[in-house]
Amino acid sequence: MRYGGERIRVYLTCLALMLSIFTKISVDLYSGAIFLQQALNWNLYASVIVLVLLAAFFTVGGGLTAVIWTDFIQTVIMVISAFILMIISMSFL
């Protein structure tokens, strides 16, 4: 193939994947820090540091299993909350 062929395709795929991952992590940290700043009146940078340390503690302390269980529990809470919100909003119709 022309212009690098398979190498350029692998390079661009890896680049897009890395940019996507870093963008998601950055947005997650920033949105969590904004929430902590508004809810607890903390400094933005202190909030980011707290979130990074909390994520590192979960990952190192419990390993990937702790992260999986945390994601599972968050999903259950979000689904139950969505159903409750749906029922409440339908009662106003």
Automatic annotation (TrEMBL):
Membrane topology category: Multi-pass membrane protein
Q: Which PROSITE patterns match?
A: NA_SOLUT_SYMP_3
The question of whether Metal-binding is a record keyword is answered with no
Give this protein's Gene Ontology molecular function annotations: D-glucose:sodium symporter activity
Keyword hit for Hydrolase: no
Which superkingdom heads the taxonomic lineage of this protein's source?
A: Eukaryota
Q: Can you supply one Gene Ontology CC term for this chain's record? A: plasma membrane
Going by the UniProt record, its keywords in alphabetical order are:
Membrane, Transmembrane, Transmembrane helix
Q: Where in the cell is it found?
A: Membrane
Q: Where are the transmembrane segments?
A: 12-36, 42-60, 72-92
Give the UniProt family note.
Answer: Belongs to the sodium:solute symporter (SSF) (TC 2.A.21) family.
Indicate what this protein is called per its UniProt record: Uncharacterized protein
Organism, per UniProt?
Rotaria sordida
Q: What is the lineage of its organism?
A: Eukaryota, Metazoa, Spiralia, Gnathifera, Rotifera
